[in-house]
Amino acid sequence: MTRAPGPRGREIAVVAFAQTDHRRTTDEVSEVEMLMPVLHEVLDRTGLKTADIGFTCSGSCDYLAGRAFSFTLALDGVGAWPPISESHVETDGAWALYEAWTKLLSGDADTALVYAYGKSSPGSLRDVLTRQLDPYYVAPLWPDSVALAALQAQALIDAGDTDESALAAVAARNRTAADTNPHAQLRGPVPHGEHAVRPLRTGDCPPVGDGAAAVILAAGERARRLCARPAWIRGIDHRIEAHGLGVRDLTDSPSARLAAEHAGAFESPVDTAELHAPFTSQEVVLRKALRLDDRVRVNPSGGALAANPMMAAGLVRIGEAAAAVHRGESDRALAHATSGPCLQQNLVAVLEGDPR
Questions:
Q1: pLDDT of residue 251
Q2: For the chain, N or C: smaller number of CB within 10 Å?
Q3: Is residue 82 exposed (0-12), middle (13-18) or buried (19+ Cβ within 10 Å)?
C-alpha cells in the first residue's frame, strides 16, 4: 500500500524536523556526536521523550563509515535501554521514513523517530559510490558518480532537453535560494567553475560533506497535539530502474513518474517541491518526470546542490517540505529522494497541511 487510507484509516504526519549545519568536514566529532544534538532538537520540538517514541528507524551506510554494523553505534545517541522497537535501512533515511510510515499505518505504534546521517569526508566519495554498481560488468571499470552523471547530462544535451548555460542557471537558482538556509553547506551564488567531467562543471555537482537529520511522525489526533500544523503524508511510494545503465533512457525517469503517480502527486497541483537532485542535469529529468512547471517553487532550501550529506539528503528533502507546511508557506508539497547512479531509485511523498 502506497496511499494513505480513507477517512476510517489512520492519518500519519510529519510533526517535527531537525538537521545539522552541513559541513565539508567534521573531523572533531564522531557520527554519534554529530547526531545527538539533532535527536535532542527534534524531540524538544514536540516535548516528547525517548520513552514516548513507539518506533525508531534509521538510515545510514557502512561503506561511508568503513566498518560493518556501524549503525549500532548510533543507538548510543538514541538510548536503547530500556529496550526500544528499532529498525535500520542501509540507504537514505527517506526509506527509513517509509518503513516508519508503514509501521504507524499498521497501528503498531502512534509515534516514530526517523533519523539518518553520513560522513563522506573521511574517504573518496566518488570511489566509494562505485561499489553500488553492477559488480560484474560496471563496477570493475570504476566509473565514479560524477562521470556517470556526466553521461546523463550529455544524453540530455544530445536530446535537446538542456544545454550548459541552462544547467548553470539551475545551479545559480538553487544556491541563491540556499542563501536563506542557515544549515546549507554552500550559500549564495558561487562560480560555476571548470569542467569536473564534461559537460558538467564543478557548479553542476553537489558538495561533499557531513550531516544528519531527523523527523518525528505521529498518527491522527496525536499529531495535532504535537504540532500546530502537521504535514500529513497523503501518499508515498518508491520505485526502481533497471540496474544496468545501458538498458535505461537516461533522459527520463519512469520510476520517479510511477512513484509520483502512486503517491497521488498528479491528482492536484503542488505549490512546493523539494527534489533530491545532486546534479543540475538530474533536476531537468525530475521536473519533466514529475510534471513540475514554473508555478511550483522548486528547492526553496537550495536542495542537494547546496548540501548533500549522503544517506540524509533525501530525508532532508522530506523534512524541508514538511517544515514549509508547518510554517504555513506551503499547502501541498512534493518531496523526492533518490539513491543509486543516475536516479536509479526514487521515492516520492506528498505532504499537505490542514485547510486554512
A1: 98
A2: C
A3: exposed
